[in-house]
């Protein structure tokens, strides 16, 4: 076996060769050499006949004379390249021309290589070996592109399926917050929940066992995406506004009566529950408060969450709390409780760090002072849900241009208007 036949048989790139020449002798010389190298040879005596062959089955390589009656080799090359096909055929022009302009014309027509007549057997072998290498690389590339295309198609279908699931998951997560505003006597609790993606890791909520006591909270689970959203689903059950027997913030008394547990005890119970769950690595920050609507007394616990902001009726404002450790980081923790007394017309705002850590146009973050400026930029006459929506709109206006939300944004607003 010759070197050329070894190359051709190993690569499998060239199996069928089309020889086109109006000279029978020239075709015989070329065909004799080619068959020694183990390839199938087809012959045609004109460009027209060669095109008929190519339309039926594209050869791997074409050896075509330039000067032929009727369709010239140059015209045949252009027609060959115009054929609709997914494969590629290597085209060598046989010519006695050596002028650079003629060679440029051949390359423009689509020729890959040239052989000068009379053809030398050794040079023919070398040119065909070079063509085999190029065809082999081209087919390997085509195969890789096919695999990539199929993989991308599979990924696209998988992405569409995941996207569909996430849209449904968002609806389920939204069901954890069945109402965004609720009035309790003259007072009101309003909620804001804006995930940065389909689903998020923030949770807000409120509940009341009846009478004059209410509970409300703002939670931010570590991380983003599906795992955080699953954690919020679990927490939504632990602090359910519908099923009081599952709500860890409520204590059943006298068979049918539920009372609010102190906020510090609720944080401890949640920490014990989360740290006891094997395999759960997520933790969360939280501000949880209970309000007595008879006198405006509010008890709170802060577990790693941003400081609550109380907005007094007289226009003054104050950040409350001393920080605290996030829930789920360490077992057997206790939490400190603090309180404030609200007068009619005062408002208490719980908010996530999606506000204070928002990236601004100047590269900095909003921080607490920026949040206070944002609050004061809102329409003074707005209350409840309108106030929260305006606050979020104000935030979007100062975000870095072209940058979407990097974190979930959530808030809980308690407005006290007396007994």
CATH third-tier fold name of the largest domain: Phosphatase 2c, domain 1
The CATH level-2 architecture of the largest domain is identified as 4-Layer Sandwich
Assigned CATH superfamily of the largest domain: PPM-type phosphatase domain
Average pLDDT works out at: 88
Major pleated sheet: 6 strands, antiparallel
CA-atom Rg in angstroms: 39 Å
Topology pattern, helix = H, strand = E: HEHEHEHEHEHEEEEHEEHEEEEEEHHHE
Counting DSSP H or I runs of 4 or more residues, the number of helices is 11
**Total separate domains:** 2
pLDDT below 50 for ≥5 consecutive residues: which ranges? none
Report the structural category: alpha+beta
List the helices and strands and how they pair.
Elements lengths: L2 H9 L4 E5 L3 H13 L3 E5 L2 H10 L4 E5 L7 H9 L8 E6 L4 H10 L3 E4 L4 H54 L6 E4 L2 E8 L7 E9 L2 E9 L4 H13 L11 E4 L3 E4 L2 H14 L7 E9 L4 E7 L5 E3 L5 E3 L17 E5 L5 E5 L1 H4 L10 H11 L6 H15 L10 E7 L4
Summarize the structure.
This protein has 419 residues and is of the alpha+beta class.
What does this structure look like?
- The chain has 419 residues and is α+β, with helices and mostly antiparallel strands.
- It folds into 2 domains: 3-144, 3-Layer(aba) Sandwich (Rossmann fold); 175-415, 4-Layer Sandwich (Phosphatase 2c, domain 1).
- It contains 11 helices and 18 strands.
- It has helices spanning 3-11, 24-36, 47-56, 73-81, 100-109, 121-174, 226-238, 263-276, 353-356, 367-377, 384-398, and strands at residues 16-20, 40-44, 61-65, 90-95, 113-116, 181-184, 187-194, 202-210, 213-221, 250-253, 257-260, 284-292, 297-303, 309-311, 317-319, 337-341, 347-351, 409-415.
- The strands form 4 sheets. Strands 6-7-18-17-14-15 form a 6-stranded antiparallel β-sheet. The protein has a 5-stranded parallel β-sheet with strand order 2-1-3-4-5, with helices on both faces.
- The N and C termini lie far apart (103 Å).
- Pfam families: Response_reg (PF00072), SpoIIE (PF07228).
- Residues 16-132 form the Response regulatory domain.
